[in-house]
Amino acid sequence: MTSYQLFVNGEWRDGGDGSYPVVDPATEQVVGHAPEASAADVEAAVAAAREAFEGWSRTGPGERAAVLHRIADALLARTDEFVPLLQAETGATLRVASSMQVPVAAERFRRYARGALEPAVEPLAPFPVAATPLAAGGLTSAVAARRPVGVVGCITSYNFPIVNLAGKLAPALAMGNTVVAKPAPQDPLGCLKLGEVFRDAGAPPGIFNVVTGSGAATGAALVASPEVDMISFTGSTAVGRRIAADGGHTMKRTLMELGGKGAAIVLEDADLSTAVAAIGSTWTFHSGQICTAPTRALVHASRYQEAVELLARYARALRVGDPLEPTTVVGPVITGQHRDRVESYISGALAEGARLVAGGTRKEHAADSQDLPGTGFYVAPTLLADVTPAMAVAREEVFGPVVAVIPFQDDEEALAIANSTDFGLYDYVFSADTARAYALAARLRTGNVGVNTAQRHPETPFGGFKQSGVGRDGGSYGLAAYSELQSVVWQS
């Protein structure tokens, strides 16, 4: 059984408060032991990042780009080590682990290697300024320059550990910042292993540090540190609120990607096969553990029954089981505690009057010929019909393989339902009339809208409205997110 260490200033060190087990969600067996960082460990990591910042922030863009390219190369060279580790600690299916983890993380390092070379200075047109008591008049010139923020604390989610971290780490480093990462407690081992990748790539010590912990104390220490200039967080809205409050004491910059409750509006003229495939991604893509999932299917009343039947057929055809098997589509959720939470939403919806069409809790599966595996934290792809907008399952983020179907009569009602939650991260519109869909998108209070697709565009600004977050990353917007704007003014 492997025991992992913290990665601080380019070196490995034991956790000051011991270690804790990381459990495979499919087998419930211990994968390895992660270090339990003490307050002193966090302080040491922050100090290392602060010391490295002076040199790294002054390196040329070409040098930063070269380091990021080498990191991508070194990561891909270790694919055979990373994929089984990530699969064991996350419970991801073989398809997700092999295609959506290491290759995507490597591409993010490459994207921001290119990003390091993007212009960081915007010249402003000269402006004639009259003399004032403050200064003499003259033709005044200026530039707006993006400068690194400083030390960035990256606190990441459990669903795609190294991908989520690379999406923060790569643009932060490209802009000349240094990083202290705090991965999710459930699956931090791949993030710790990135330390080996940085050493392989010859990255300067201290630009990337990793501290881990089983509870909230490690992340809280990072947020509280006066030497940390910015916190980039992906996770729940509840935790995001605490980070915003605690970070406010030292006026930290924040970038927060928080919860989502995606609405998929299916208009009467929609191609149902396209809509069902997109909505079904809630079940097929990492067991619904994704903030952008279209978990609310808002279907025009004239197509409602047909959509429910097609979704039920889709859900029942999905193979639930061992994520190591190539034919498995739906694996486990991350922990037993999270499985219980997801099941409580299903039970609660049934108690409120929803109708179970497919799936359900372990209780509903007890007499099913396709029982869930006896070991592992599995939730069957679940379809709930006759859901009303007031139900908890329609308002709160479940983060599991659960789809709630809600009928509507017209566009105005669809918009009202879609906008009725506290969240606004990613919504969808399905219609044969793309101009109509585009017009509806403008009225959705959400940071992202997919029209007839659940596909993402990697260069778009990504983030949420309302309680789904603060700020935007993605593409060149990610470079802006990890920089401060400085105005430099002079007279000719």
UniProtKB/TrEMBL annotation:
The keyword Plastid does not apply. Residues 12-488 form the Aldehyde dehydrogenase domain. Pfam families: Aldedh. Belongs to the aldehyde dehydrogenase family. PANTHER family: ALDEHYDE DEHYDROGENASE, ALDEHYDE DEHYDROGENASE-RELATED. This is Aldehyde dehydrogenase family protein. Keywords: Oxidoreductase. The keyword Oxidoreductase applies.
